[in-house]
């Protein structure tokens, strides 16, 4: 089984040239089923990479990022998207009983976004007057 991990970065600035310090955290959608030493290695690797890429210190929050718990081997992506939504907008965390509805919701959201951008791009290239065809 695969487990989903989410890394969220929190910083007052997203400009890598003016970044001075920030923090990172990891959440695991399998909870205690994932080996603690694997998470420690992942955190160290993330901190090293972020420190090298941004040249600033990152504080590890210790794996306390809230994330829903999956009971299957294929809902990791849904858990990841939901954990980011939860952290940013306060939506309820993923539950196994809602996994199918969330999967459909995220698919529909992605398709709507793509269709809106494809229409705009199509109209710009073809100089159409009706943005909705």
Structure description:
It is a single chain. With 133 residues, the protein is an alpha+beta fold. It has one domain. It contains three helices and three strands; from the N terminus they run E-E-H-E-H-H. The longest helix is centred in the C-terminal third of the chain and has 28 residues, at 99-126. The protein is globular, with a radius of gyration of 19 Å.
Number of strands: 3
Largest sheet: 3 strands, mixed
| Mean pLDDT reading | 74
Helix- and strand-based class?
alpha+beta
Helix content: 40-55%
In short, what is this structure?
By secondary structure, this protein is of the alpha+beta class. 46% of the residues lie in helices and 12% in strands.
Identify the notable features of this structure and list them briefly.
single chain, 133 residues, alpha+beta, three-stranded mixed beta sheet, 3 helices
Topology, element by element:
Layout: E1 5-10, E2 22-28, H1 36-54, E3 58-60, H2 76-89, H3 99-126
Parallel strand pairs: 2-3
Antiparallel strand pairs: 1-2
């Amino acid at each position: 089984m695969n487990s989903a991990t989410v890394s969220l970065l929190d910083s007052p600035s997203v400009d890598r040239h003016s970044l001075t310090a920030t923090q990172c955290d990891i959440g695991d959608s399998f909870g205690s089923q994932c080996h603690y030493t694997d998470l420690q290695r992942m955190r160290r690797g993330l901190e090293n990479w972020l420190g090298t890429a941004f040249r600033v210190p990152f504080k590890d929050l210790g794996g306390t990022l809230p994330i829903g718990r999956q009971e299957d081997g294929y809902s990791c992506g849904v858990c990841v998207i939901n954990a980011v939504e939860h952290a940013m907008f306060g939506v309820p965390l993923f539950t196994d009983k809602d996994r199918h509805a969330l999967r459909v919701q995220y698919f529909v959201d992605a398709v709507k976004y793509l269709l809106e951008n494809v229409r705009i791009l199509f109209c710009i290239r073809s100089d159409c007057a009706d943005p909705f065809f």
